[in-house]
Amino acid sequence: MNDESKRRIQQTFSKYPDKYVTSTTHSSGEDLPLMVEWAKPEKHWSVLDIATGGGHVAKQLAPYVKEVFATDLTKAMLNNTATTLQTIDNIHYVKADAEDLPFLDNTFDFVTCRIAPHHFPNPEHFIQESARVLKSNGLFIMIDNIAANEDELDYFYNTFEEMRDPSHNRALRIAEWKQYLSNSSLTVKKETTRKKKLPFDDWLTRTMDNELQMEKVRAFMQSAPQEIKDYFYIIENEESIEAFAIDEWMVLCYKQT
């Protein structure tokens, strides 16, 4: 990652590390148990969780495997998560850049990354690194917010995310991700998409505390054409927005030998 992108990410996630532990968007969801169902982890496995954030994936997988290496670029986030999960003794915490991982080739049986790649300025490098550290026939699961194929919807979503969160780089389209996966010899085994409902105030205040900036995000979404509001399931009340929904993609791949 370039230095400016790193600085923005670390600044954003150092500010409120607790919010990513307690956020219902991150701490719950059908995708966490689905990871176990899809991957069928085994007791001898070594797992890498990239950009662990609040450690929800590491916590979910730890009972099923030998060890989980939970990595994150932001030391404050990693420290907070390590403290929160201190009773789980097979999770190891490593400060690491998703685009330049400090691990040897062919190290892990399973690599995961959840609700983070839209922050990465060079997503293709992240995919290359994930594949590099994965053993032959090892599994890779990625879960992230995605952009719609229509340019107008793509622009609207990525614009309000960047307004709310300066560490947001870009939510990619599925076709873009599949090209990166294919280029790194990661073959798709299974995938699913869903609409993920987000409580507006919780989503907004997770990264913002400036009322003027929050109002700009609110106004941008409220002034959208009706067809865009319909696509994002924007629910409004008299004064603000109650909730909305974004597209999320979950994909399971294996590394070709």
Automatic annotation (TrEMBL):
Family: Belongs to the methyltransferase superfamily.
Any single biological process term in GO: methylation
Name the UniProt record assigns to this protein: Methyltransferase
Family matches, as InterPro entries: Diverse_substrate_MTase, Methyltransf_11, SAM-dependent_MTases_sf
Gene3D superfamilies noted in UniProt: Vaccinia Virus protein VP39
Domain Methyltransferase type: from-to ranges: 48-142
Top-level taxon of origin: Bacteria
Key words of the record: Methyltransferase, Transferase
GO molecular function, one term: S-adenosylmethionine-dependent methyltransferase activity
